Amino acid sequence: MQAEEKFTYETWPASPEKATLEAKNKFLGFWLFLGGETVLFASLFATYLALKDKVPNAEQALAKDLFELPLVFVMTMLLLTSSLTSVYAMYHMKNYDFKKMQLWLGITVLLGLSFLGFEIYEFNHYVHEFHHTFSSSAFGSAFYTLVGFHGAHVALGLLWITTLMVRNAKRGLSLYNAPKFYLASLYWHFIDVVWVFIFTVVYLMGMVG
Amino acid sequence: MSTYAQKKGFGATIWDYMTTVDHKKIAILYLIAGGIFFILGGLEAMFIRIQLAVPDNNFVSAGLYNEILTMHGTTMIFLAAMPLLFAFMNAIMPLQIGARDVAFPFLNSLGFWLFFFGGLFLNLSWFLGGAPDAGWTSYASLSLDSAGHGIDFYALGLQISGAGTLIGGINFLVTIINMRAPGMTYMRMPLFTWSTFVASALILFAFPPLTIGLFFMIFDRMFGSNFFDPAMGGNTVLWEHLFWIFGHPEVYILILPAFGIFSEIFATFSRKRLFGYSSMVFATVLIGFLGFMVWAHHMFTTGMGPIANAIFAVATMAIAVPTGIKIFNWLFTMWGGSIKFTTPMLWAVAFIPSFVAGGVTGVMLATAAADYQYHDSYFVVAHFHYVIVGGVVFALLAGTHFYWPKMFGTMLNEFLGKITFWLFLIGFHLTFFIQHFLGLMGMPRRIFTFLPDQGLETGNLISTVGAVLMAVAVIVLLINIVITSVKNERVGNDPWEDGRTLEWSIPSPPPFYNFKQLPLVRGLDAYWLEKVEGKKGMTPAEPLGDIHMPNNSILPVVMSLGLFIAAFGAMYRTEHAWGLPVLIGGMLITLLAMFARSVKDDHGFHIHKEDLENDDDKGGKA
């Protein structure tokens, strides 16, 4: 199958993300990349656990002083929902319905943006209310690096999905860009999974111990 | 689009190599850049040995000595050994599996240029206020207190080149999984391809911890974080763990492809199928797996406690089992074979006792209780040079002679090759064998001088003489390369006459599309099988048709250059006003280049069937 070929609903393949050799390569390569990313975040989690609540003096805030679950709960719901909407987008991609795919991707981007907004508010809150900064303690360094790395992934994912949406707005789906959309959504799911672990390891465990 | 068969000017050739996405040209880039860094690292080694030739020497100062030994280790591991292995992986692996290119030609180029600019950045430290001086391991307790920008060059430079290595690893994995020719099942893959596969998997999982460790180092030194500062709650041992979780798999990333090269050479010049092929594959995978379980044997003396030490000691010794399987398989491959002692075969034969010696001291060092005596002594220096020089460097030199005709279409001179071999072999054992005893006599590693009348003079002098022999051997190799290139006597498909695998079934060097028609693989040692049945070449697996090829691109250079510029900004941010804008500007260059790559369609081009038919002198039969 040629990447430039024009399709209709009937001729569109069942798995457009793996229909050409280039697409197969991208698909596998991206999964492997996510394997590497997993180790990257595992190193960050290990560091966070090692340095959690490690502060130079007693005046500094600890995890149990900092976190407020209602805010983090809202953020978690936003990100989990955005994962669901990106699944809807891929459902429509597989059905060759470009407009609906763009619509659901747009909703995904909006949810991701509001997540980022909350995260910026959250960091700002810690810095100004608790003087918990990147440089104030090893705990601060580890916290902002782990959660900030995730935030940077969210920002990059938003940039990626938006670029794809704008670039392909006028030309619809093809076997050339379908794998790109698919991988962006895969990346988005990965970011979501990492957040589930951050929610558990940083916030929930921070509240209890 | 296809510009082959045209004579080009010098500038056009440079541009061609800067934009190329052809795995064979990228291999040559890796070979040249890795070779230059190998010579640089070798010069640093010579300075070390000159300084230590006699007691109380003042050839270099203590501070400069620290910089030289740090750069020697860092350069040899990251900028010489790995890129040179990448050169052979790029040049040979796609040919061995019958592919027309790697899975991601663009990323292949990006990987090279990231490595190159990272290495360049690291070495610019010599001219910009001093090189890193905390050892190649750069333990945080030393590196955080190191004045000047040396460690910044180390952390930023390795970060950039490490990204390139990771990209290369993913690329090779996908290539081997997805791009094999019809009939090339996993258990028919040549051992060099297998070891490339396992080493790439190690790269994928070992480099991210280094990335994180280097980020922490960059943040601690340049952006005010406190990961490694105990006064602020940090932990200096954290770096050691992250570094060695990367660092131990790293030695297997180096040695497994070396094993692969030797496996090819043993089979070729014993003119026999590799003994115990499936157990070789099994041993390779097992070594790769166990390689992740042993990192803390570098840290026995940090006080992890007897239980952790015991576990890591046993896990380390376990690696001797699959390695032993390999050694016996190589011996049995030679057993009963009709052996030809070519230069590559000499290296292979010499590799076995040299590497085994390094393996034996490895088991000694793995004994945690005894390690307290050996730790940080010249015994350790002798051990790791025996495995890395006696294993990896021997393989690189063997591979250079073995694959030179396939990469460049002309044979290196065998006589000069054998001179290189004997000089290097004698020089190597002279340099490092005595260092075991220097270590046992109490000479610490990384020491810039020693006192007279402590029994260390003779040993150190012998060691230095050996190093001179190795340097002469490398010079002979360079002369050999010059003579060979000037003579430029072209050779055919199978210049060693005993080639077993697919790369020897096509011209040397291969046409840029490698295989005119993809070959049909009917078993292990695919080309040998056809030769045994009296055929001249491979049976094609497809009719002659259009070949799809990727376009060249300058974007990999631009992306890497952006990070190179950004690294300067990050480093000088706190002391110069221009630091922050340069950091942001550099990142923007990279991001914009990525953006350009994303929005501009790149469908590649087709070589048409008619052009291939007229191209009879290239591409061979299959």
UniProtKB/TrEMBL annotation, chain A:
Localization per Swiss-Prot or TrEMBL: Cell membrane
InterPro entries per UniProt: Cyt_c/ubiquinol_Oxase_su3, Cyt_c_oxidase-like_su3, Cyt_c_oxidase_su3-like_sf, Cyt_c_oxidase_su3_a-hlx, Ubiquinol_oxase_su3_dom
GO terms of biological process kind: aerobic electron transport chain
Major place of residence: membrane
CDD domains: Ubiquinol_oxidase_III
Membrane topology value: Multi-pass membrane protein
The Heme-copper oxidase subunit III family profile domain, residue ranges: 1-207
Record key words, sorted: Cell membrane, Membrane, Transmembrane, Transmembrane helix
GO CC term (a single one): plasma membrane
GO-annotated molecular function: cytochrome-c oxidase activity
Segments forming a coiled coil: none
Transmembrane segments: 28-51, 71-91, 103-121, 141-166, 186-206
Pfam families: COX3
Family: Belongs to the cytochrome c oxidase subunit 3 family.
Protein's name according to its UniProt entry: Cytochrome (Ubi)quinol oxidase subunit III
Protein's organism: Mesobacillus zeae
TrEMBL record, chain B:
InterPro entries from the UniProt entry: Cyt_c_oxase-like_su1_dom, Cyt_c_oxase-like_su1_sf, Cyt_C_Oxase_1, Cyt_c_Oxase_su1_BS, Cyt_c_oxidase_su1_bac
GO MF entries: cytochrome-c oxidase activity; heme binding; metal ion binding; oxidoreductase activity
Keyword entries, A-Z: Cell membrane, Copper, Electron transport, Heme, Iron, Membrane, Metal-binding, Oxidoreductase, Respiratory chain, Translocase, Transmembrane, Transmembrane helix, Transport
Database matches in Gene3D superfamilies: 1.10.287.70, Cytochrome c oxidase-like, subunit I domain
Pathway per the UniProt entry: Energy metabolism; oxidative phosphorylation
Swiss-Prot/TrEMBL catalytic activity: 4 Fe(II)-[cytochrome c] + O2 + 8 H(+)(in) = 4 Fe(III)-[cytochrome c] + 2 H2O + 4 H(+)(out)
The keyword Nucleotidyltransferase is annotated on this UniProt entry: no
Protein's GO biological process: electron transport coupled proton transport; oxidative phosphorylation; respiratory electron transport chain
Ranges that cross the membrane: 27-48, 68-89, 110-129, 153-179, 191-219, 242-262, 274-295, 307-332, 344-366, 378-398, 419-441, 461-483, 554-572, 578-596
UniProt cross-references to SUPFAM superfamilies, sorted A to Z: Cytochrome c oxidase subunit I-like
Cytochrome oxidase subunit I profile domain sequence ranges: 9-522
Documented EC number(s): 7.1.1.9
Membrane topology: Multi-pass membrane protein
Function, in words: Cytochrome c oxidase is the component of the respiratory chain that catalyzes the reduction of oxygen to water. Subunits 1-3 form the functional core of the enzyme complex. CO I is the catalytic subunit of the enzyme. Electrons originating in cytochrome c are transferred via the copper A center of subunit 2 and heme A of subunit 1 to the bimetallic center formed by heme A3 and copper B.
Protein family membership: Belongs to the heme-copper respiratory oxidase family.
Protein name: Cytochrome c oxidase subunit 1
Underlying gene: ctaD
